[in-house]
Design a protein that fits this description.
alpha/beta, globular, 39% helix, single chain
Length: 270
């Protein structure tokens, strides 16, 4: 069958993603991506360290990020996202900004991180008081709370699992249970941390039950990266995506009726 008349595949815009070596949720990231955008993922080198503050520092070193971004630039993405929450909050606000700068310099391309995207998402929905859910140990969870506090975000309640490995295997029911534990005060939103924690399908359920916006690490990362290139993330019944949906084009004004005089009396048609 000759398909040459189709003119080739649909043109794509690229989003580069730098993920830690143990990232296992490539498929979840793709679920937020519209059909005309492709993800190009690369991973940081393996290090024999469990999930911890030490690992967060190792997978966010500027040299490591620079090498990953330069590799991604071979396929010409329009933006690069560093998809790791702990790796991008472990150095505080200044550390996150320095990471973005290092990636931008390495690839001469706009760059962002999960933790930076999170703050942008909070600003988008007007959230200053949040409930917090993480799969991390207490020390890593506390480091995230410090990062948020530095940005003026108050944590009203939190729940964490204390895991140091295999975070991608956590079932949705555990995420829901933690969310219910964390929402104990007057919060503007709930944040579920860690790009290796599955969240896509649980977000609408929790938003309906808790009656507040629910953000997750992968969600805000893809939302911010796609917004950078003028695209919109796909995610039904997710408040962040609904609130930031571009306004529809206005309906065209009806054509102005001509004067009631016949055309010939207007010096018009003959």
């Amino acid at each position: 069958m000759d398909v040459s008349f189709l003119g080739g595949p649909q043109p794509q815009r690229g989003v580069g993603v730098v993920a830690p070596f143990d990232f296992a949720l490539d498929r979840e990231l793709w679920r937020w991506v519209p059909d005309d955008v492709s993800l190009h993922l690369t991973r940081t080198p393996f290090v024999p360290v469990e999930v911890s503050l030490d690992l967060a520092r190792l997978v966010s070193e500027h040299e490591t990020l620079g090498e990953a971004v330069r590799a991604l630039c071979a396929v010409a993405p329009q933006v690069v996202a560093y998809a790791c929450t702990s790796g991008s909050f472990v150095g505080g606000l200044a550390g996150e900004r320095a990471m973005c700068e290092a990636m931008t310099v390495a690839g001469e391309i706009p760059s962002l991180t999960t933790s930076g995207a999170l703050l942008a998402a909070f600003q988008e929905i007007g959230a200053r008081r949040i409930a917090l859910v993480t799969p991390y140990t207490e020390s890593v969870t506390s480091s995230l709370e410090e990062y948020l506090g530095e940005a003026g975000i108050t944590v009203t309640g939190r729940a964490f699992l204390g895991l140091t490995r295999h975070i991608w295997k956590v079932p949705y029911r555990d995420v829901v249970d933690m969310a219910r534990q964390a929402v104990v005060g007057a919060a503007d939103a709930l944040f579920i941390s860690c790009t290796n924690l599955p969240t896509y399908d649980v977000i609408p359920q929790l938003e309906a039950e808790l009656r507040m916006p629910v953000l997750s690490a992968n969600q805000v990362t893809m939302w911010a990266a796609l917004r950078q290139i003028g695209a919109h993330a796909v995610g039904p019944y997710q408040r962040l995506l609904i609130d930031s949906m571009p306004a529809p084009d206005p309906m065209p004004e009806p054509a102005t009726a001509l004067a009631e005089d016949p055309p010939e009396e207007q010096g018009g048609w003959t």
